[in-house]
Write a structure and sequence with these properties.
16% of the residues lie in helices and 33% in strands. The strands form 4 sheets. Strands 4, 5, 6, 7, 8, 9 and 10 form a 7-stranded mixed beta sheet that branches. Strands 15, 16, 17, 18, 19, 20 and 21 form a 7-stranded mixed beta sheet that branches. A 4-stranded antiparallel beta sheet has the order 11-3-12-13, with helices on one face. The chain has 3 domains: 108 residues, Mannose-Binding Protein A, subunit A (Mannose-Binding Protein A, Chain A, Roll); 114 residues, no CATH class; 109 residues, Roll (Mannose-Binding Protein A, Chain A). The chain has 357 residues and is α+β, with helices and mostly antiparallel strands. A hairpin with a 4-residue loop joins strand 17 and strand 18. It contains 6 helices and 21 strands.
């Protein structure tokens, strides 16, 4: 997050979300539940992180087993994910050591050797050292005298810190300083065959002690247990379920920023605002489906006060500006590219836009 490009006033934080969860107590098969959610809400529930998980569980008074939107179809290709929500895996940036492709199907977790910083696949039940990431103070936590399997390591990091070390955090110089050359440790990279009902690529998983149930048998649909952890069952089994309703809508009409603002306020609530990385992630999912290269956001620059502000009157406490931005000038507003980065554009450009409903 960079604050040196623009002027900001002091920030006050709020917890508005761009979606809400609904518990449906009627027993249905997974497919029936999916159809019900799509007809009456948005889709079967998807979960972005532990905060979402708590909100999901808080949406029902008496917790019972209930379907969510995660499923696996036989033959699905295993896809790599970072454990930390919001960090996307990029094959071009991977640092794989030579892999044994004949044994790959049984190795779904990844360890890193500090000596050469290469990644190597391993069986997830193996016990190794691990490194956690603490998002509150942006620090790495080294658990070098504690060995756990990958799932236990992930659980420990989430309970006591934020998550297993993921993505760019592996470039931290402290790794070389704190870990001996010959040591290796779990990182937050894993793969599975699971996908969300609405097509989202959210990487968050909250399995019990038997992770990576890759749909090899007949249990290809996911439900939340009474403990709050996830398990799988046959999709024809009937259970209650969770739906989610999104409070965002992508409008595929080319309009100037002012026209987009008027449209959202007339037909919905307002142009979308983004105040944290969680909201950024949800808006970015919508922006990928736009018919224009950019979509308007509800962020505008005021020359009078020399600062950026959201149309819902909240100040800018989070930003995701892309590199190489031109100097700001009057009559500029923020738009989002398909990769999620924000850009400054003249108000007279015409783009698709996202409304909050």
């Amino acid at each position: 997050m960079a604050y040196n490009q623009h002027n900001y006033a002091s920030c006050s934080f709020f917890t508005c979300r761009h979606y809400e969860y609904h518990f449906i107590g009627e027993n249905k098969t997974w497919k029936e539940a999916q159809s019900f959610c799509r007809e009456n809400y948005t889709d079967l529930a998807k979960v972005y992180d532990m905060t979402d998980m708590k909100r999901l569980l808080d949406s029902v008074k008496n917790q019972t087993e209930a379907w969510i939107g995660l499923y696996s179809e036989p033959g699905n290709k295993r896809m790599w994910h970072w454990s930390l929500p919001g960090v996307e895996y990029n094959e071009s940036e991977a640092k794989w050591e030579n892999r044994d492709l004949n044994d790959e199907h049984r190795k779904n977790c990844v360890r890193m050797k500090i000596r050469d910083q290469k990644w190597k696949t391993s069986k997830c039940h193996e016990e190794k050292q691990f490194v956690c990431y603490n998002g509150e103070n942006m620090q790495l936590i080294f658990l070098l005298f504690c060995k756990k399997n990958w799932t236990e390591a992930q659980r420990f990091c989430r309970e006591h810190h934020t998550d297993l070390v993921s993505g760019d955090q592996l470039e931290d110089d402290k790794l070389k300083q704190e870990i001996a050359d010959r040591d290796e440790f779990w990182i937050g990279l894993f793969r599975d065959t699971w996908t969300w009902s609405d097509g989202s690529n959210f990487s968050f998983r909250h399995w019990d002690q038997e992770p990576f149930r890759d749909g090899q048998g007949e249990k290809n649909c996911t439900f939340v247990k009474t403990s709050g952890e996830w398990d799988t069952d046959q999709c024809m089994t009937k259970k209650p379920f969770f739906c989610y309703k999104e409070k965002l809508i992508l409008i595929q009409e080319h309009k100037t920023w002012d026209e987009a603002l008027d449209y959202c306020r007339e037909h919905h609530r307002d142009l979308v605002s983004i105040t944290n990385v969680h909201q950024q992630r949800w808006v970015q999912q919508r922006a990928k489906n736009a018919s224009t290269d950019y979509v308007w956001l509800g962020l505008r620059y005021t020359c009078v006060l020399d600062l950026w502000f959201w149309v819902n009157d909240h100040l800018v406490c989070y930003d995701n500006w892309g590199p190489g931005q031109e100097p700001v000038s009057c009559f500029h507003s923020a738009a989002m590219a398909s990769d999620g980065q924000w850009v400054k554009k003249a108000d007279t450009n015409t783009f698709d836009f996202i409304c909050a409903v």
